Amino acid sequence: MTTRVLVVDDAATVRLYHRQLLSAAGFEVAEAVNGLDAVEAALQTAFDLFVVDVNMPKMDGYACVSALRGETVATTAPILMISTEDRQSDADLAYAVGANLYLVKPVDGARLVRMATMLTANDGDGDGDLHP
C-alpha cells in the first residue's frame, strides 16, 4: 500500500522540492497551497501524513493543524510542521495544536524523508508519535 502525503505550503518551490524528495522515496504526494485547501483535501481523501508550513495566507499552519485534529476532519495521521520560525514558543504551539514533529527550515532532504518514514511507520498504537 502506498503512503499518501499532503504537502501544505504557499511557496510553489517548497512544494515542488518536498514532492520530489518524498516521491523519490516512494510516497504518493498531493499538494495544498494553504491551510484551508489542506482541510478541504483532508475531507475528501485520507492521508497518512501531513507536512505543513506555518506561515501561509487564508489559514496558517497552526489553524490548519487544529482543524485537522478537530471534530470535522478528526485525522489521527501524523503531522510534521516545517517553518522558518525557530523560537521554542513556535515549536511549543505546534505541539499544543496537535503536530507530531516540528522542524525548522531549511530542512535537509534526507532528514525530511527520514522523519516522514519514521512518522508513517506502524508501531502498532496508531498515534504517529516517535515512540511506542
From TrEMBL:
Species, as recorded: Pengzhenrongella sicca
Keywords: Phosphoprotein
4-aspartylphosphate found at: 53
Residue ranges occupied by any Response regulatory domain in the UniProt entry: 4-120
Classification via PANTHER family: CHEMOTAXIS TWO-COMPONENT RESPONSE REGULATOR, STRESS RESPONSE REGULATOR PROTEIN 1
Gene Ontology annotations of biological process type: phosphorelay signal transduction system
PROSITE patterns according to UniProt: RESPONSE_REGULATORY
InterPro entries listed in its UniProt record: Bact_response_regulator, CheY-like_superfamily, Sig_transdc_resp-reg_receiver
UniProt xrefs under Pfam families: Response_reg
Keyword Oxidoreductase: no
Protein name: Response regulator
